[in-house]
Design goal:
Its main location: cytoplasm. InterPro entries: ATPase_NBD (IPR043129), D-XK_euk (IPR042024), FGGY_C (IPR018485), FGGY_N (IPR018484). It comes from Penicillium cinerascens. This protein is α+β, with helices and mostly antiparallel strands. The chain has two domains: 284 residues, Nucleotidyltransferase, domain 5; 129 residues, no CATH class. The protein contains 21 helices and 24 strands. Helix 17 links the parallel strand 22 and strand 23. Helix 14 packs antiparallel against helix 16 and helix 16 crosses helix 21. It is globular. Bound molecules: adenosine-5'-diphosphate and 5-O-phosphono-D-xylulose (5SP). Adenosine-5'-diphosphate (ADP) binds next to helix 14.
Length: 572
């Protein structure tokens, strides 16, 4: 009976909201509920989903907020008419790197969840520390320096763990945590990632880490498929490796593993069936590449709070400037990633400055930004002899490159190679609409060019397709500039699901985990059911001869500009 056909839920616990998205076995979305942390929560003094301690560059989120969000999203799905008894599998996507510190009572509290009470009410005391360090945190420079040295250098750490040390990575965060709060660390029985936290709450016991998301810790040796003992030793400090290993737990290799049935709390409170199974939740970026059957020649740009650039690839070529993760479902594949802190919020700053300068509050807040960005010629060159306008726009400290917050504006003459730091000729904020999109896309092109190949016919190396996802993927001005800079022989596409790609990828992971035949890969199962004409839409041209090559010159200026800024700011 069609009405009894199975359904699957994917949760996306991101920086600014929790989403719950329900699909059927044909991969079609049938329900969606959202909880916006700032707008919908009660009792938390958060801004953009987080709290900050500027003095120490700390950014963190209250874990109880996420529990409030989970119950509310489930209630909202019920109100929409979802029959939870049809849900056969649950998976999730969590903002990466964030850690949750469970106290010694946690397992008992999780096991004994009472359906008469909310999750927030009964799990508030399950944590040894009420906050989860957020990926935007920049408090761990000292710990990163130690991690970078632990295997010899940044290169070696990247070779082993897929990344050099980064402020937000969980290993450096745990190291700082155990030093700053030694008593709390001692009272911590288990540490979850945000992804395994989602799975834990549904299972009613602490769930293991996911094979892909564990690579965001600087603790997992990707080549060995095991924790890196030297990194663990550093991270555990005086508390010892064995104790830390217990806190972290095992890491199963199978991303489609059946972790167990959903806890009876959800059966009694929402009507889940006892055979609804929890499948490992992964990081939000690994989940995003599961939103479609991505080919190794395709690129995805996720325009969320952060900007990330993602590719699925069989090559493992780690470099201190990039990230490699295990693929979330398919052994032998990896996920390549670039991650920028100054994504959506940085673009919003320019958008707001433009609206303010025009004394306008349009009903579509991006209308002026988009119009101006599209009216501005590439690199702000109104005539062929004008210099290119290049800038870095970092309201928050940036990851790529590792730079403090600030704004830098330059002009660059590609014929002479002359680069000058100047605001002369810049109309501020108008010129910044196109310049900020260009700056973000040029950085992606600069750092991903080693992984792209020529599609043939004498064309330059570039992706086959560029898929845009995340909140910013609705924006056609951004899509147009993305295509001009990144190329893409077949064009720039957005998913019909818009900004919900990572919740969708999580739901697809649950479908695959529950419905796969023995040995069937994710790509095979999803590829067979995927309906291209219904699920994606071409929104901009990709490769345009001439424009792409001109932006190639801009990439050279961009690289020079970054080096100059890094050099001059390093001296300050
Ligand atoms: N029309 C739009 N144009 C550009 N950016 C947008 C638009 N709508 C939303 N955004 C951006 O999307 C971001 C949120 O993206 P989303 O993927 O939902 O967030 P998260 O990172 O929390 O998952 C916001 O920071 C906002 O700047
Ligand atoms: O730190 C990273 C990736 O390394 C971020 O991409 C986070 O995973 C959170 O992203 P949003 O979905 O909130 O933008």
């Amino acid at each position: 009976m069609a009405s009894q056909s199975p359904l699957y839920i994917g949760f996306d616990l991101s920086t600014q909201q929790l989403k719950g998205l329900v699909v059927n076995s044909d991969l079609k979305v049938v329900y969606l509920a959202k909880f916006d942390f700032d707008a919908d929560s009660t009792g938390f003094d958060i801004k953009k989903g987080v709290l900050t301690n500027e003095a120490e560059h700390e950014v963190y989120a209250p874990v109880a907020l996420w529990l409030q969000a989970l119950d509310t999203v489930l209630s909202s799905l019920r109100q929409q008419g979802l029959d939870f008894s049809r849900v056969k599998g649950i998976s999730g996507a969590g903002q990466q790197h964030g850690s949750v510190y469970w106290g010694h009572e946690a397992e008992t509290l999780l096991q004994n969840l009472d359906s008469a009470k909310s999750l927030e009410e009964q799990l508030e005391t399950a944590f040894s520390h009420p906050y989860s360090p957020n990926w935007q945190d920049a408090s761990t420079q000292k710990e990163c320096d130690e991690f970078d040295k632990v295997l010899g250098g940044q290169e070696e750490l990247a070779q082993a763990t897929g990344s050099k040390a980064h402020h937000r990575f969980t290993g450096p965060q745990i190291l700082r945590f155990q030093r700053k709060y030694p008593e709390v660390y001692q009272k911590t029985a288990r540490i979850s990632l945000v992804s395994s936290f989602i799975a834990s709450v549904f299972l009613g016991r602490v769930a293991p880490f996911d094979i892909s998301d564990v690579c965001g810790m600087n603790l997992w040796n990707i080549k060995k498929g095991a924790y890196d003992v030297e990194a663990l030793k550093l991270c555990a400090g005086k508390f010892g490796v064995e104790d830390l290993k217990k806190k972290l737990g095992e890491v199963p290799e199978d991303g489609g593993l059946h972790l167990g049935p959903v806890h009876p709390y959800y059966m009694k409170r929402y009507g889940f069936s006892p055979d609804c199974t929890v499948i490992p939740a992964t990081g939000d970026n690994p989940a995003t590449i599961l939103a479609l059957p991505l080919l190794p020649s395709d690129a995805m740009v996720s325009l969320g709070t952060s900007t990330t650039f993602l590719m699925s690839t069989p090559s493992y070529k780690p470099d201190p400037a990039t990230h490699f993760f295990n693929h979330p479902t398919t052994a032998g594949l990896y996920m390549f990633m670039l991650c920028y802190k100054n994504g959506g919020l940085a673009r919003e700053h320019v958008r707001d400055a433009i609206n303010e300068s025009l004394k306008d509050t349009p009903s579509q807040p991006w209308a002026n930004f988009d119009k101006i960005a599209l009216q501005t010629p590439p690199m702000g060159q109104r005539t062929a002899t004008d210099p290119m306008k290049l800038g870095l726009f970092f309201p928050r400290p940036e990851i790529v490159p590792n730079l403090h917050s600030g704004q830098w504006r330059f002009t660059y003459d590609p014929t002479t190679g002359q680069l000058q730091e100047t605001t002369e000729g810049w109309a501020t904020p108008q010129d910044e609409a196109r310049a900020i999109i260009e700056s973000q896309m040029l950085s992606l092109r600069l750092r991903s060019r080693g992984l792209t190949q020529s599609p043939g016919n004498g064309l330059p190396a570039q992706p086959r397709r560029v898929y845009l996802v995340g909140g910013g993927s609705k924006n056609e001005a951004i899509a147009k500039v993305a295509g001009e800079i990144l190329g893409g022989v077949e064009g720039v596409y957005k998913l019909d699901i818009g900004d919900n790609a990572c919740a969708l990828g999580a739901a697809y992971k649950a479908v695959w985990g529950m419905e796969r035949q023995a040995g069937q890969t994710f790509e095979d199962l999803i590829g067979q059911r995927w309906q291209e004409e219904e699920f994606i839409e071409k929104i901009a041209d990709g490769y345009q001869k001439g424009v792409f090559e001109q932006y190639g010159k801009a990439v050279e200026g961009f690289e020079k500009m970054e080096q100059q800024v890094l050099q001059q700011e390093g001296k300050k």
